[in-house]
Amino acid sequence: MGGGGGGAGSRVKVVGQVERVDGRSLTYPEFVDRFMKPNLPVVLTGLTSSWRSCEDWTLAGTDGRRRPNLDFFAQNFPSPLVQVADCSSREFTDHKRLEMSMQEFIDISVRNSSTGSSNGDCEASLLYLKDWHFVKEYPDYVAYTTPTLFVDDWLNMYLDSHPMHRDPDIANHKNEINCADYRFVYMGAKGTWTPLHADVFRSYSWSANVCGRKLWLFLEPSQSHLIFDRNLRSPVYDINDDVSEKQFPDFNKAEWIECIQEQNEIIFVPSGWYHQVHNLEDTISINHNWFNAYNLHWVWNLLHEDYKVAKEYIEDIRDICDDFEGLCQRNLAANTGMNFYDFFIFITRFVLANVIELYHIREPEDAKFNSTETAHPFVYNLMQIRNVASKMISKEAFSTKNLCIISEENRSAMSDVTKILKDDSFRRLWMSLSEAYAYIGRGRRSFDQMRDLNQKGCLSVACLKSDCNVVDDITFLMLEIHGPEDLVRLIDAALRE
């Protein structure tokens, strides 16, 4: 894969470096307290040594550094269609996207490498394979193991068992492919790059370099207004451009922090941090976007802000529109990736899963599970969801009138608690959450032993009963959830119990 690209980060004021920590030395609570909760970036070392991808996907270079093994990809992962960014061509706020087969991408990359091409038409452009849903496409090939620090991943847990959208006007085939999961593989030559952006849903992300080096430039959220235009609509596209002071009057006030990420290092990107990334060598990376209780409020805040924009854009047709709110929500889903109803169904299921886990901790057959420390994450999760749900109560989307005309698919997905609890997709989600917290709290060995003890009736790792009646106990608290107010009441009742 050939080189190209200019001097990254040369035009901005860099005031600090991202902290670097040996990931093996961090416990999960330490990672939460030092980085996740305060929303700070970090580079983590020592967490990829056992990954199959670090061997299979790379070759040793003459200088001892690893480089992409393109032949291995061509032979083993002949994806019929991958998303490729043309880093020499802008389209709105991103690079122009192309679709091609994996073989086409590799052929062009090898040709560019041998000729040194990096400019001109498509075939001589800097192409960057992005957003490849590798895990979904090749589930039997275990390229890596998600580090323990990142397994509390509600977004991918949910999408492994649920669709993002249920409204038939939104849930078309293309949408469902695009949000199949948020686990990606990226592959790009030296000089490929990603324009300035904040991550989808204002999620956390982690990015691991299987090989290669990247330069990251970060701007903390409190300064994000400085990189927007006068109307606070559009951010700067490339921080290395000659940024117009007239269009972006405060850009030069921004203070950036940077890091060079080496091969086998993982970078944790917190919520709402704008960043621009440059590949300094031919690079392959594995990337996840995710959110959980610690950044759930970031997701809701983004949805709410984007909703206001979507609503304002079509306000002039309110009086002639039979379902104005429904149109706002469809536009929000198209622009942001989910809408209020998608998000409400999402948090409802995580409330139920967390309530179930809390139930088992409070009334265990085995007293070793009954501890404040074990209960804390589930109580915290419920309290954070409650905070977000409380803000949703007054929104027009959840008025009695609008809830009466939402799609049947959305209504059935959010209302009947008994049906939800017995649904196979929810039970898979519940089991994933239970396993994730068992893995965080007790480690792989004792987790496997506990799964052997678990009986058929209940999917909680903490449950040792063959006749568990947790479903009956939850439905005793609440039978139907019609909106965020009911969800708040259910959380309050569960925490009292």
Automatic annotation (TrEMBL):
> Which Gene Ontology cellular-component terms appear in the entry?
cytoplasm; nucleus
| Molecular function GO labels | 2-oxoglutarate-dependent dioxygenase activity; sequence-specific DNA binding
Q: What region holds the JmjC domain?
A: 151-307
Indicate the secretion signal residues. none
Give the matching Pfam families. Answer: Cupin_8
Please give the family membership noted in the entry: Belongs to the JARID1 histone demethylase family.
Protein's recorded name: JmjC domain-containing protein
Q: Which organism is it from?
A: Lolium multiflorum (Italian ryegrass)
